[in-house]
Amino acid sequence: MHDYSIRAARPDDLDGARALMLDTVYRDFGTGYVPRWHADIIDPAAAYLASPRHTLLVAVDPRGQEVVATAALDSRGPAHPPNPRELAERYPSGETAQLRRVYVRPEHRRRGLARRLVDELLAFAAADGGYRAVYLHTDPKVPGAESFWRSLGRVVHDEREDLDGGEDVVHFEIPMER
């Protein structure tokens, strides 16, 4: 059993966090780096450390001090496009805590890290006092992603059911208090 350290990312954690995030978008999503979707990965300091309403958490393996998991929160609601208009209206920026980049290296999965990180993000959102809702979207093709988020929240839109042949994206709302 590992005794992982979970903390707010420090400047010296950012290279490890960036590497993990990039590995995930290439390996798990198969998209690779897409600037309009992944700019926060390239500059996580600007995206998550510069605003007191945003955060980037890391889980560090104490054996090698390697960043093995990430989880982020920012105050940007889902943009339309590419997301459905009703979601952009329901989850406006400034009032919505959007969970992002909840990624765990494959060899460290199934150890409760993602759940611990999400619990910390929810506590951060609640402590902020200005967030009305917690939102995220996920790619259901990533093994375990959809079932993990279903265990924590409720589906508010499944684009696989859209008549216009939407993307493979499932949108969730997570209760701030669990």
Describe this structure in words.
There is one protein chain. The protein has helices at 14-27, 35-42, 44-49, 85-90, 113-128, 145-152, and strands spanning 5-8, 55-61, 66-74, 96-104, 133-138, 154-158, 170-173. It is globular. It has 178 residues and is α+β, with helices and mostly antiparallel strands. Strands 1-2-3-4-5-7-6 form a 7-stranded mixed sheet, with helices on both faces.
Helix content: 25-40%
Distance N terminus to C terminus? 26 Å
What is the 3D form?
globular
Rg? 15 Å
Mean pLDDT metric? 94
Main pleated-sheet profile: 7 strands, mixed
Strand content: 15-25%
Helix and strand string, N-terminal first? EHHHEEHEHEHEE
| Strand neighbour order, sheet with most strands | 1-2-3-4-5-7-6
Number of helical segments with 4 or more residues: 6
Segments where pLDDT lies below 50 for 5+ residues? Answer: none
The number of distinct β-strands equals 7
Give me some keywords for this one.
alpha+beta, seven-stranded mixed beta sheet, 6 helices, 33% helix, globular
